[in-house]
């Protein structure tokens, strides 16, 4: 892994490296839109639905293209192979 990113997984997609769960979810939502609608597919909205502890979350995504739109749920988790506790340097300060 580069730049301290973690690897994230979402059912039906290859794992990817991202800065956090939300960034990973935005990539997975875009991939879902492109898979569904082709090259014009995009994710127009992404909202956190449910936190699944510090290592996962479910997001509600609205994906669309000129031909239509749909809402889907994506569950994104830290990949088990890269599951590690954050170091002290990566934790936000409590001050």
Describe how the helices and strands are arranged:
Layout: E1 6-10, E2 16-18, H1 21-37, E3 42-51, E4 56-65, E5 68-78
Antiparallel strand pairs: 1-2, 1-5, 3-4, 4-5
Explained architecture:
The chain is α+β, with helices and mostly antiparallel strands. The chain has one domain. Helices cover 18% and strands 41% of the residues. It has one helix spanning 21-37; strands at 6-10, 16-18, 42-51, 56-65, 68-78. It has a five-stranded antiparallel beta sheet.
- What is the overall pLDDT average? 85
Shape: globular
Number of structural units classed as domains: 1
Helicity level, as a percent range? Answer: 10-25%
The tally of beta strands, per DSSP, is 5
Largest sheet: 5 strands, antiparallel
- Tell me the span between the first and last alpha carbons: 30 Å
Key structural traits:
alpha+beta; 95 residues
Brief synopsis:
By secondary structure, the protein is an alpha+beta fold. It has one helix and five strands; from the N terminus they run ββαβββ.
């Amino acid at each position: 892994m580069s730049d301290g990113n973690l690897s994230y997984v979402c059912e039906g997609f290859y794992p990817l490296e991202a800065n956090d769960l939300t960034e990973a979810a935005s990539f997975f939502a875009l991939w879902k839109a492109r898979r569904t609608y082709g090259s014009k597919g995009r994710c127009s909205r992404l909202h956190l639905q449910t936190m699944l502890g510090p290592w996962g979350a479910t997001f509600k995504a609205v994906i669309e293209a000129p031909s239509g739109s749909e809402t889907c749920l994506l569950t994104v988790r830290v990949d088990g192979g890269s599951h590690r506790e954050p170091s002290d340097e990566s934790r936000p300060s409590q001050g």
